[in-house]
Queue: 2 jobs
Job 1
Amino acid sequence: MTNKKGVLVIVSGPAGTGKGTVIGRVGELRGDLRYSVSATTRAPRPGETDGVNYYFKTREEFETMIGAGAFLEYAEYVGNLYGTPAGPVDESLSAGLNVILEIEVQGAAQVMARRPDAVSVFLAPPSLAELESRLRGRGTEDDATIRRRLDTARGELALAKGYQYIIVNDDVETAARELDAVITAGRCRSMYYPEGENLL
Amino acid sequence: MTNKKGVLVIVSGPAGTGKGTVIGRVGELRGDLRYSVSATTRAPRPGETDGVNYYFKTREEFETMIGAGAFLEYAEYVGNLYGTPAGPVDESLSAGLNVILEIEVQGAAQVMARRPDAVSVFLAPPSLAELESRLRGRGTEDDATIRRRLDTARGELALAKGYQYIIVNDDVETAARELDAVITAGRCRSMYYPEGENLL
């Protein structure tokens, strides 16, 4: 009997590394993936749907959830609260689905501390020069912003060893296949099995 | 830059679980595998080639190797010494090849203790009833031997949680793909990368 519980996969890494692209490709490779949806107190933007882009909450609702320990991680940015509600994640895991949490490094550290069963993956650019080239290629940020992002990326790279896996996104297809393998392997971890001869 | 060092993969589990078949299939799935060759003091049998089936050693040579710490594990069975020489394994790993060590549980425990970088996989039968049916299907062992093997299997199953991964060999193709994923994931482990921002 194969284990049926899904794996919680944390994917973090510097902005511009291509997390969204790699994760999207893995979703095409396997049908058992779900992407975690965050909760936020910020107002919905035109076209955003509650429960799809975000779970939209009032500050009071959000703070009640914090008090109830309902978040895998949360943080405040420019006056708004953002967090990952544990409930939908655990429902998917129990249903045998793997849940991908694309998250910045501070949030990743919170989830790792709370969920030792999670698999953690740091997605790295092939080099800082390549990261700079990708950020400039977007054409959406000015020079000062790009330099600030590169400084942040240096600090994030120093945290990579705290993740179980490091995947270098040199080629999207290779990186996606590696992440796919990490998920498949994650489902085979012995932690999912009972002790003793009653394994089977 | 992707890590180029190979992974040492320990594969153990009860006799009759299909280790050889699964490992053989993984060798077809990926070109970067090598199978570890054991050393032994027993005499070569007709058709056996030194360095292919075994490294054939005199007892004196073998004991000198033990004294030099040249084995990843070794043991004595019915008057002959058997062991896994570390040298050829490490040469393959340095060349970027993954090395599969198909080994019984006592040897596996020795390798795990000496090589914390190894990935350990316990290959389990889908059930003891199925294992019994496979052992009887071989038609090579009498009833008493089969019952002894099943008793041994029960004891081995109790050790499964000491491995990093448990793969249930219900279907050879599925088990081989899971082992393949475990190897690919093993190459992405953060332990292979240096500390700090000089990751890249």
Note: Helices of chain B lie at 19-29, 59-67, 86-94, 105-114, 128-138, 143-157, 172-187.
Job 2
Amino acid sequence: MRLSEGVEWGLHCATLLSFLPDGQALPAARLAEYHGVPGAYLAKNLQALSRAGIVETVPGARGGYRLARSPAAISMLEIVEALDGHESAFRCTEIRRRGPTAVPAREYRAPCAIHAVMDRADAAWRAELAAASIADIVTMLSESAPSGALKKGSKWFQEVLR
Amino acid sequence: MRLSEGVEWGLHCATLLSFLPDGQALPAARLAEYHGVPGAYLAKNLQALSRAGIVETVPGARGGYRLARSPAAISMLEIVEALDGHESAFRCTEIRRRGPTAVPAREYRAPCAIHAVMDRADAAWRAELAAASIADIVTMLSESAPSGALKKGSKWFQEVLR
């Protein structure tokens, strides 16, 4: 099982947008340029983030995307679910109801034990992502990103927001 | 992201095999019949479980598959990883190294903060599955499966193992 590339892109875009000065926005083409990813495909991911209320669009010549809420109020889980959906990775097709041991549907009152444990694992995965906000990512980045990259990022911002 | 159907089948097969009396085995065709799934595709999953040392084959007319270890010594994680691999669901393509802020590779000493949190979520998912054994599933099933299905299962075993 793999998450789509769009999940990585969306998480990075939200992180970058959290560095925007108040009142500013970044066009999708700039977000694609910064991340070195194809613009048309990234645009679809940004639209999904917009529908989920994570980013919002600002119209006009200096318009583009910005975060719809403060970085501390946006969890990684929200971004992942906006781009990948809310469904568990485990596909339960209720095979216990097939074959020679099948009984009438009404008798399957409790969920299948295997399904229950898979759901528990899925909940643990989502809980970790719900516990990390974009603000947390920024804090971690400020400690771990190469200083050269942070300087270049700052310079890039000054140029594109002129 | 979705796990393959084979993961559900493999977990159910290992659970069923845990009910086999000592010294007995079930052919792949019987496992397919019991679960109402296509035999040829199930056979591939059983071979993967065999390569992972979770099931083993018994040759001969009354041969087939049986668990290679006690149900308490087989975790759900082992089965999931045998069928779906060990890779995290998150696909990190290191997009931080692309675009205008890229710096030489040697400067990226710490893992990307986004990747680090995604890894933490993956570890939480795997920890839940590692904590549940096939013996645990059997205990849960004995409490929650429809009694009619348990009776039919017992009857089916008596017939096919005659």
Note: The longest helix of chain A spans residues 113-130.
